[in-house]
């Protein structure tokens, strides 16, 4: 019994006002649509995303192979119909990318109800506010009993045939269950979750962040490295080769920026330091490039359950001049660290010390990480 999931992500996010589709807004380490994919992927067999027109390729690249991306429609219901056209599952979950943090657990509970025979299943929370029906002149018409009201979320689950029949009307509704209701179908309500809030405005993004509970597990680390210039050695710095510049003596390719970054990552994650991980007792790393060491450090940090929030590195020395190749250096380091946010700065030391007297290059790096 296979299960498809349609992630409605084709909205423009007008109320959010970011100037980009809401599904592409970043929340911690990934975009809203990527969060939605991560929570559904473990429990469904097929994922279909409805993308805003013109953003199909960008979304496809973000979510990777094996996920179908179709162009959405002018309304949410039209978008869902475009997804339904390619759904192959006997059951289908319909989910809003805007409810990015809905958990895998709520999706499993929806699926369990479908398997038990329900035609339509929706997660819901009790309403905390008193809700009133108001007329066009701004006067209250009635006050429904709050105890009988609930606030509806996604993912909603359906028997695919029943949802297709409900959508055949081509009607519009703000959720899919409403179309089933209009057809006389029974809609089962199960307990939703606060973290499945619909991200509508920038303030909602802050609430969503609090569900990721990053606050308690944020960690910072620092690392430094320095090497003296040699003679006839190529210079490697910040993952780049610098033709025409004298290189430095030192471990492997002497990339002080890469080494400082590795140390900062190990410090933040309490995984030791450059020496304990890549030192002389680990011959497999003898002569390894700075880039390779950063890749290894990234892999160790990730395996230990950490996500990199950002890494900043400052290069200290009279030369080379970093500014012209800053973007390249950022890209090289980011590539080695799984696409992490990187900044690269440089300074001189007013003629003082090893670096100021032009004897070598130093680097200092900080890393901010958090537990997954
Ligand atoms: N959606 C869609 N196709 C549309 C409109 C909306 O797939 N034509 C999706 C949105 O991407 C969102 C979900 O439906 O994940 C719920 O819609 P909403 O929260 O209203 O998002 P937006 O329409 O993007 O936001 P706004 O109404 O503020 O423009
Ligand atoms: Mg909308």
Describe this structure in words.
The chain has 372 residues and is an alpha/beta fold. The protein has two domains: 209 residues, Alpha-Beta Complex (Spore Coat Polysaccharide Biosynthesis Protein SpsA, Chain A), CATH 3.90.550; 154 residues, 2-C-methyl-D-erythritol 2,4-cyclodiphosphate synthase (60s Ribosomal Protein L30, Chain: A, 2-Layer Sandwich). Helix content is 30%, strand content 29%. The protein is built from twelve helices and 17 strands. The strands form four sheets. Strands 1, 4, 5, 6, 7, 10, 11 and 12 form an eight-stranded mixed beta sheet that branches. Strand 15, helix 11 and strand 16 form a beta-alpha-beta unit. The radius of gyration is 27 Å and the shape is elongated. The model has no long low-confidence stretch (mean pLDDT 95). The structure holds cytidine-5'-triphosphate and magnesium ion. The site of cytidine-5'-triphosphate (CTP) has 23 residues, from helix 3.
Q: What small molecules does this complex bind? A: cytidine-5'-triphosphate, magnesium ion
Which regions are unreliable across 5 or more consecutive residues at pLDDT < 50?
none
| SS-derived structural category | alpha/beta
Order of helices and strands: EEEHEHEHEHEEEEEHHEHEEHHHEHEHE
Query: What's the architecture of the largest domain, going by CATH?
Result: Alpha-Beta Complex
CATH topology of the largest domain: Spore Coat Polysaccharide Biosynthesis Protein SpsA, Chain A
In what range is the share of β-strand residues? 25-35%
CATH homologous group name of the largest domain: Spore Coat Polysaccharide Biosynthesis Protein SpsA, Chain A
Major sheet size, sense and barrel closure: 8 strands, mixed
H/I helix tally? 12
Average of the residue pLDDT scores: 95
What integer value in Å does the Rg equal?
27 Å
Quaternary structure of the protein? single chain
């Amino acid at each position: 019994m296979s299960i498809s999931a349609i992630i409605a992500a084709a909205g423009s996010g007008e109320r959010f006002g970011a100037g980009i589709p809401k599904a592409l807004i970043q929340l911690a380490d990934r975009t809203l649509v990527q969060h939605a994919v991560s929570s559904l992927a473990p429990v469904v067999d097929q994922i279909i995303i409805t993308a805003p027109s013109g953003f199909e390729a960008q979304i496809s690249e973000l979510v990777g192979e094996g996920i179908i991306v179709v162009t959405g429609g002018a309304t949410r219901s039209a978008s869902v119909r475009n997804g339904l056209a390619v759904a192959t599952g006997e059951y289908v979950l319909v989910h809003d990318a805007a409810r990015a943090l809905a958990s895998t657990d709520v999706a499993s509970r929806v699926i369990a109800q479908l398997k038990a025979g329900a035609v339509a299943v929706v997660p819901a929370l009790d309403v905390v506010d008193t809700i009133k029906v108001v007329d066009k002149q701004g006067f209250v018409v009635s006050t429904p009993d709050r105890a009988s009201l609930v606030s509806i979320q996604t993912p909603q689950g359906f028997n695919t045939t029943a949802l297709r029949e409900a959508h055949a009307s081509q009607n519009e509704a703000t959720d899919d269950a409403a179309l089933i209701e209009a057809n006389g179908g029974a809609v089962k309500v199960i307990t939703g979750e606060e973290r499945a809030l619909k991200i509508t405005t920038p303030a909602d993004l802050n609430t969503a962040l609090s569900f990721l509970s990053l606050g308690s597990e944020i960690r910072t680390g620092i690392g430094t490295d320095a090497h003296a210039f040699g003679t006839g050695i190529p210079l490697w710095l910040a993952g780049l080769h610098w033709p025409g510049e004298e290189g430095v003596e030192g471990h492997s390719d002497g990339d002080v920026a890469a080494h400082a970054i590795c140390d900062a990552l190990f410090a933040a994650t309490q995984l030791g330091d450059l020496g304990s991980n890549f030192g002389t007792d680990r011959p497999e790393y003898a002569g390894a490039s700075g880039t390779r060491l950063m890749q290894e450090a990234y892999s160790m940090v990730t395996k230990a359950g950490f996500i990199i929030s950002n890494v900043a590195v400052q290069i200290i020395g009279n030369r080379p001049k970093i500014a012209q190749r800053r973007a390249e250096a950022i890209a090289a380091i980011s590539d080695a660290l799984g696409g992490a946010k990187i900044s690269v700065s440089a300074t001189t030391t007013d003629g003082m010390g090893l670096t100021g007297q032009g004897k070598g290059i130093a680097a200092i790096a900080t890393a901010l990480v958090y537990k997954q």
